[in-house]
Design goal:
Blueprint: E1 3-12, E2 28-38, E3 47-56, E4 67-71, H1 73-85
Antiparallel strand pairs: 1-2, 2-3, 3-4
Length: about 90
């Protein structure tokens, strides 16, 4: 199966929450990675998202511990929308 990975950075100006992650996350920049797989039985090229992850803590955080946590991309989008509303 052919896969592709998309990497981006999500910037939050205020503390935020995400489903599946306990507690509030601090404002900052977070690495996001989405893994997609090719849907092979179609007559055109299309990919299906398999997993989206966020790297915790924020980029530049003083903590030495880092972890990668699977998240729902819709939860991420909603958190970003809420963050825009707090500016």
């Amino acid at each position: 199966m052919t896969t592709r990975t998309t990497r981006s950075v999500a910037v939050f100006n205020s503390a935020f929450t995400l489903g599946g992650i306990d507690g509030e996350l601090p404002a900052g920049s977070y690495r996001i990675e989405s893994e997609e797989e090719l849907i092979e039985s179609l007559s055109f090229v299309a990919f299906r998202r398999v997993e989206t992850t966020i790297e915790l803590p924020a980029i530049g955080s003083v903590s030495l511990k880092r972890q990668v946590v699977a998240i729902d991309p819709l939860d991420l989008a909603m958190a970003q929308e809420r963050d825009i509303g707090t500016e």
